[in-house]
Amino acid sequence: MTYDTLKSRVRGSVITQFDPDYATSRDALTWNGRKPISSVCIIVRAQDARDVQEAVRFAAEYGLNVSARGGGHQFSGIAARADMVIDLAALDRMRIDASSRTAILEPAVTNVRLATALERKGLGFPVGHCGDVTVSGYLLGGGIGWNSNAWGVACFSVVSVDVVLADGQLVTATENDHPDIFWAARGAGPEFFGIVVSYQIRLYDAPKAATSLVRVYGAQSMAKVSEWAESAIARAPESVEFTVKIGASPIGPVMAAIANVFVSDARQAAALGADLWRDAPDGALEVVGPMQTPISSLYGMTGPSAPRGSRYGVDCVWSNVGFAESLAMMLRAVELAPSPNSFALCALRSNARPSPDTAAFSREGRVFSTIYGIWEDEAQDDANLEWLRLSIDRCQPFATGTYVGESDLDRPGQSLPRLSPDALARLAQLTARHDPSGLFSPTLPTRDLSAA
Ligand SMILES: Cc1cc2nc3c(=O)[nH]c(=O)nc-3n(C[C@H](O)[C@H](O)[C@H](O)COP(=O)(O)OP(=O)(O)OC[C@H]3O[C@@H](n4cnc5c(N)ncnc54)[C@H](O)[C@@H]3O)c2cc1C
């Protein structure tokens, strides 16, 4: 294999195992401080879509498998495990067209950049909950973001994708052109059989009077909080997003009940907030808000919870049980966590608009629970991962699936289903057609049991 051939074909840079900065460059592919075991031998830092095409053709010629890397935020470091990793970090252009209410995004555009630019134009989009995550893998795996209850899971607002296929061809896929590719690019995540070099998305009016309110409760209030939340969210419109964050504290696990209201009229925001909280349980340890929270400002609140450089083990479950069951599981998980930095989120989405069945994204539930194991010391890896997996096992009896973006893809053996059985079967057929030699076959240690 001649690396010089590849270097002469691309405008961007090529790093191989023989370069002095190889190990640093390989580790930098993964956002998590806990790096995956990686077999990557070539990193191509693409400058543009043409570089992606050249790199894919080279990989096909030399029998290498390939993975795209958006921001490397998938906690299992799944983007960094192929023979060749095509790093899309330099593809970060964004064009917003306010008149057609659409935007074209290259993969490395971050949530915070998109949210801030849109707000300046009075527009919005269900951007993810953390600012520096890139749209690349976020949109490909689904995208559960701010105001997704009303605007939908983000991939359903993608209107076209430019994709480099296994033969190096660049195609634009929409509902009408290459509809199968378009279907798969909205939810297949790491199992997608191509590389998306550009997304076109549909935009919405910015919720100009977005507000938030937080009430913090001790664990002993769990039953009252869940009972109140069930009835308050049952009567709330889809513009209300409700999540409980469970974290450690000196008095044991505490629950921060967080309601974000995404509307444009200040009086409506106040009325919705008042109705929501009118019969909230007494005994809150702390109340914060109501406060004005444009979407871009929410990143100042979520960012500190997920510091870069820490070691992470993360997994999540969809379920259709009552909120109390999920909340109890998350409280127990945080109570037993080896690290005090770990936390869990439990989102009650009973007021969310159901997703259409027009995309590979096909697993959801009324409750979405995520456990974030966060620690600093490598010697603690085993203890934290064992705790994470045991905590998820306790949810198995009522889990309906997992979400690939925040799934523990390192977990050996079987995992919760990421797609519906129909979607999984269709994706397998399309992969066989568009990537017959398995160029983009991801190294997923866990088997999706959707079809079982
Ligand atoms: C702090 C933090 C907060 C998060 N919050 C949310 C949240 O609120 N909502 C949510 O839905 N998710 C959330 N996530 C999960 C995140 O959206 C997904 O893990 C997503 O995949 C990250 O995008 P990425 O571009 O960094 O993906 P990467 O880690 O780079 O890649 C993930 C997988 O997708 C593939 N891939 C990535 N880009 C492309 C492309 N352009 N073409 C083909 N394949 C590609 C890679 O090969 C890899 O298999 C969060 C993650 C972190 C670290």
What is the gist of this entry?
29% of the residues lie in helices and 25% in strands.
Percent range for helical residues? 25-40%
**Neighbour order of strands in the largest sheet:** 15-12-14-13-17-18-16-19
Number of domains: 3
How does the overall form come out from the CA principal axes? globular
Beginning-to-end CA distance, first to last residue: 41 Å
What fraction strand?
15-25%
Question: How many strand elements?
Answer: 21
CATH architectural group of the largest domain: 3-Layer(aba) Sandwich
| Helix-and-strand structural type | alpha+beta
**CATH hierarchy class name of the largest domain:** Alpha Beta
Query: Please, what is the average pLDDT?
Result: 95
Instruction: From the alpha carbons, calculate the radius of gyration and give it in angstroms.
Output: 22 Å
CATH fold name of the largest domain: Vanillyl-alcohol Oxidase, Chain A, domain 3
Q: With helices defined by DSSP (H or I, 4 residues minimum), what is the helix count?
A: 13
Ligands present: flavin-adenine dinucleotide
The major pleated sheet works out as: 8 strands, antiparallel
